[in-house]
Design goal:
mainly alpha; about 60% helix
């Protein structure tokens, strides 16, 4: 369950261009004792890489590419994570060979609203994802189903008409 949440978090970080999400997820998925860099250094390097991608200097990467890149930078994942990443790469290649324009990341993005909704809500409630993130992902609809978080004061919020009782 923890691995699923971290992979979702890393994927969301890649999609939203949020280096802190990727670094947090990769750090939690790694074997801390043998990592060659610190979590702060990982986040800094991811930020630099994302900046290079935004500038068009480097090509955008999908989650499997980010994982390989992180390993090159000194992050040491468990065997299970490495095997999973290899599987994602193999599936991407198989999809390409049959002429599909889809990738594993695209398929995961298609499934995320159905499968990952509960986890995304949890990440929002924990303050890891923001309203802006949900809007950017096109998930504004789930905002109405969530109660205000500690970071969202209720004072000054607009009241919905359905909450106003007229006459009594």
């Amino acid at each position: 369950k923890e691995m699923q949440e971290n992979l979702l978090l890393a994927g969301l970080g890649e999609y939203l261009f949020r280096p802190e999400l990727i670094s947090r997820a990769f750090w939690d998925l790694s074997v801390h004792q043998i990592n060659e860099i610190s979590q702060a250094e990982l986040q800094s390097r991811i930020s630099q890489k994302m900046q290079r991608i935004r500038q068009g200097v480097d090509k955008p990467m999908q989650l499997s590419g980010w994982m390989v890149w992180a390993m090159d930078e000194g992050i040491r994942f468990s065997y299970d994570i490495i095997s999973l990443n290899r599987g994602m790469i193999i599936l991407d290649q198989a999809l390409k060979e049959v002429g599909s324009s889809k990738t594993i990341t695209n398929l995961a993005e298609d499934l995320a609203p159905k499968v990952g909704l509960g986890k995304v809500k949890d990440l929002y409630k924990k303050g890891i994802l923001t309203k802006k993130d949900l809007l950017q992902m096109g998930w504004s609809g789930i905002l109405s189903s969530l109660s205000p978080t500690a970071s969202e004061p209720t004072a000054g919020r607009a009241m919905q008409c359905s909450k106003i009782y007229i006459g009594r």
